[in-house]
């Protein structure tokens, strides 16, 4: 086969203009990311899918499975990475059977929260104060705590809180969107309301909220979110390992990402919009991979 020197020279010039880190990653690389239906999990998984596919030539599959299935599949090599493991308490039982086959990497979010939340404009600051001010927190004619589905962990903890603090309020269980709609309506009118919430959640980027102090520790302690992988992943992809280890988010950045997705109504479109508006943050994460080249 004959090649024209001009064609070859042009091709070489084009390759020379590609940054070294991106050039090394430009080859197709398949990656399965395990996900679940938590809002923050869907948000960050779609963010990384867009970044790695559009800018570094990866072929990403998002595999939405239950937690038990995720850990088992990753231990067998069918899932490469997952963006979210809560430690030291929440996800320890899922990790324990596979701790020799899986690797927990660096933290990307510190200080998770779980508990009863009120708008910052209300005057109470602790759960015991709800007992004295229950009449202010009426919902449909009865003092109430608005929660999510009755089978959730936070719903069970809220039942415990009502019992341990002897609160004269009932928990009203519904869907997450219904709870958030009630919060939005009360917030707009600056009315008292108490809901069950957790961090990270997009609500903290949209509203000025506060956790009620929990002196009995019913809702437990704050935890840390890490990313994790099959055991040999860091050897197979040292570049992405360094990049994900450099990845850090807080209530403002993660809450903003989730709020954008909520507003747009589509995880990929919302993540893309957030990426376009936060290149300075993202470029710092990506630059961490340069030292592996």
From TrEMBL:
<feature type="domain" description="ABC-type glycine betaine transport system substrate-binding">
    <location>
        <begin position="29"/>
        <end position="276"/>
    </location>
</feature>
<dbReference type="GO" id="GO:0043190">
    <property type="term" value="C:ATP-binding cassette (ABC) transporter complex"/>
</dbReference>
<dbReference type="GO" id="GO:0031460">
    <property type="term" value="P:glycine betaine transport"/>
</dbReference>
<keyword id="KW-0472">Membrane</keyword>
<keyword id="KW-0732">Signal</keyword>
<dbReference type="GO" id="GO:0005275">
    <property type="term" value="F:amine transmembrane transporter activity"/>
</dbReference>
<feature type="signal peptide">
    <location>
        <begin position="1"/>
        <end position="26"/>
    </location>
</feature>
<dbReference type="GO" id="GO:0015871">
    <property type="term" value="P:choline transport"/>
</dbReference>
<keyword id="KW-0813">Transport</keyword>
<keyword id="KW-1003">Cell membrane</keyword>
<protein>
    <submittedName>
        <fullName>Glycine/betaine ABC transporter</fullName>
    </submittedName>
</protein>
<dbReference type="GO" id="GO:0015226">
    <property type="term" value="F:carnitine transmembrane transporter activity"/>
</dbReference>
<dbReference type="Pfam" id="PF04069">
    <property type="entry name" value="OpuAC"/>
</dbReference>
<dbReference type="InterPro" id="IPR007210">
    <property type="entry name" value="ABC_Gly_betaine_transp_sub-bd"/>
</dbReference>
């Amino acid at each position: 086969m004959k090649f024209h020197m001009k064609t070859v020279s042009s091709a070489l010039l084009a390759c020379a203009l590609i940054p070294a880190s991106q050039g090394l990653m430009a080859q197709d690389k398949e990656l399965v990311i395990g996900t679940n239906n938590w809002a923050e999990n869907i948000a960050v998984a779609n963010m990384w899918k867009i970044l790695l596919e559009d800018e570094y030539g990866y072929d990403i599959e998002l595999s939405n499975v239950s937690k038990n299935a995720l850990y088992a599949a990753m231990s067998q090599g069918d899932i490469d990475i997952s963006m979210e493991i809560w430690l030291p308490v929440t996800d320890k039982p899922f990790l324990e059977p596979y701790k020799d086959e899986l690797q927990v990497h660096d933290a990307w979010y510190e200080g998770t929260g779980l508990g009863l939340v009120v708008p910052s404009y209300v005057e109470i600051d602790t759960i015991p104060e709800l007992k004295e001010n229950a009449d202010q927190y009426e919902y449909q004619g009865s003092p109430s705590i608005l929660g999510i589905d009755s089978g959730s962990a936070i719903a069970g903890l809220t039942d415990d809180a009502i019992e341990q603090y002897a609160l004269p309020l009932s928990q009203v269980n519904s869907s997450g969107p219904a709870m958030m709609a009630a919060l939005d309506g009360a917030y707009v009118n600056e009315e008292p309301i108490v809901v069950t919430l957790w961090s990270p959640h997009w609500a903290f980027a949209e509203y000025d909220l506060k956790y009620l102090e929990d002196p009995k520790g019913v809702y437990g302690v704050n935890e840390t979110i890490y990313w994790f992988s099959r055991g040999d992943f860091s050897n197979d992809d040292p570049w992405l390992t360094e990049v994900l280890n450099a990845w850090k988010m807080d209530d403002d950045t993660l809450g903003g990402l989730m709020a954008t997705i909520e507003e747009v109504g589509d995880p990929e479109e919302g993540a893309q919009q957030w990426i376009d508006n936060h290149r300075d943050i993202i470029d710092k994460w990506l630059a961490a991979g340069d030292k592996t080249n």
